[in-house]
Amino acid sequence: MIRMETILITGAGTGLGKALALTYSKKGFSILLSGRNEHPLKTVEQEIEQLGGHAAAVVCDITNSHSIAAMLNALQEKNITIDRLINNAGVGYFGELESLSEADINTILDTNVKGTILLTRALLPLFKKQQSGRILNIISTAGLRGKVNESVYVASKFAVRGFSESLQKELEHTPIDVTAVYMGGMDTPFWENSDHVKDKSRFKTPETVAEKILSEDDGRPEIFVDK
Length: 227
Ligand SMILES: NC(=O)c1ccc[n+]([C@@H]2O[C@H](COP(=O)([O-])OP(=O)(O)OC[C@H]3O[C@@H](n4cnc5c(N)ncnc54)[C@H](OP(=O)(O)O)[C@@H]3O)[C@@H](O)[C@H]2O)c1
Hints:
Layout: E1 6-10, H1 15-26, E2 30-35, H2 38-50, E3 54-59, H3 65-77, E4 84-87, H4 102-129, E5 133-138, H5 151-170, E6 176-183, H6 206-217, E7 223-226
Helix pairs in contact: 1-2, 1-6, 3-4, 4-5
The chain binds NADP nicotinamide-adenine-dinucleotide phosphate.
């Protein structure tokens, strides 16, 4: 019997993470749904299981290395291996730079940059031991060019771009791949509590973007841009 590949997706209770979870599940992957709030993760878990797929909710705050270690230990105790990681969790606060509080700045950088780095650092020894692994870093077109009233968010996504490109070089002679994914706006809860985007309904749906990511995934590109 062929073992199902397991993907750990961060921020999988909402938006693109949820869409990726459902899309990869339909393709036959087992999904570990990660995020800070258990309720939305459990709802996605039920949705996937009702469709005949396999999923499990695992609560984790990626900004906290203890929370990451606790999640990975709990999975190890259940003999659950991880074949792929999708670093999708991210936050954004927008407006003129001086309107952002230090707390806002910390949250953006801690989640988008430090969280991505900490979780990747925690999983790399497992991937190296099993001599396989695949990492998708969900960035944004904000990782490709500067934008008005998005300075800190853009800075965080440029950082993840640099992190991804450097890891690609660092892992060049290993069986571990890293893909940097750059997409434009999506109609997700990301824009709730913000008037930075006037009409998010003009954006692509996360389901459309998730399908495109999956369709590119087999080619294991270093970069995937979906504007
Ligand atoms: N929406 C867009 O227009 C757009 C465009 C390009 C790129 N992106 C990127 O796409 C990714 C997904 O965003 P989205 O649009 O789907 O927004 P979203 O629905 O707000 O999803 C973000 C997810 O991240 C999780 N999260 C936040 N902080 C976390 C933490 N400390 N630890 C673990 N999980 C955390 C949230 O769950 P909890 O709150 O439960 O933890 C939430 O499920 C982000 O990286 C975003 O930057 C979005």
